[in-house]
Design a protein that fits this description.
By secondary structure, the protein is α/β, with parallel strands linked by helices. Helices cover 31% and strands 21% of the residues. The chain has helices at residues 19-24, 48-60, 118-127, 142-157, 172-175, 186-202; strands at 3-9, 31-32, 35-42, 64-70, 77-80, 82-84, 111-113, 132-135, 162-168. It has a seven-stranded mixed sheet with strand order 2-3-1-4-9-5-8, with helices on both faces. A two-stranded antiparallel ribbon has the order 6-7. A hairpin with a 2-residue loop joins strand 2 and strand 3. Helix 3 packs across helix 6. The longest helix is centred in the C-terminal third of the chain and has 17 residues, at 186-202. The termini are far apart. It comes from Pantoea alhagi. InterPro entries: Peptidase_C15 (IPR000816), Peptidase_C15-like (IPR016125), Peptidase_C15-like_sf (IPR036440), PGP-I_bact-type (IPR029762), PGPEP1_Cys_AS (IPR033694), PGPEP1_Glu_AS (IPR033693). Belongs to the peptidase C15 family.
Amino acid sequence: MRTVLITAFEPFGGERMNPSWEAVRQLHERMLCGFQVVAKELPCVFGDALTTLYAEMEALQPELIIAVGQAGGRADISVERIGININDARIPDNKGNQPIDEPIIPGGPAAYFSTLPIKAIVEGIREAGIPASVSQTAGTYVCNHVMYGLLHRLAQQGNEVRGGFIHIPYLPEQAINHPGAPSMAAQTVILALEMAITIALRTEQDLRLVGGATH
């Protein structure tokens, strides 16, 4: 059976939940465009997250891979454009690791661009009435670590498998502990992720639309 792998993270940074996993786990074994979606939770740990991801990729041989993570403070579905070859952790990961200014892949390229149709995904999600944008930074924590590591592995394999990363806001039940922080309901996030998968499977050539930033 043809599969799509979608990953998310365990809670980190003192949170009791991670909105990425709360949404992504609802997609497990769902059928979209003739593909079975497989959801996998990754540890929020440098190194271990990629070990888990690579093992799942090897086992499943998916035709599309989307990693999802929490971006507390962001107000929309953020489809990431680029992953950079640096670990620079503002806080320790879930095993207490805090790498600073260390490459993810020693000797690897400075960056990789997402191979998802990022602008088509953003446009489709917006048309459904859900806030979305292209993001120019996946940060320098475990989310960027996974995005870069994923794209590096796909580049090494040299196949046509597409991959990329999407950040999502807090859930409302998290935001009550972060006064003033935006949030998005789980069902809205789930719909947006379903659309992202469907659009990625159906879109060969990305749209040429404004999606840049001035700063």
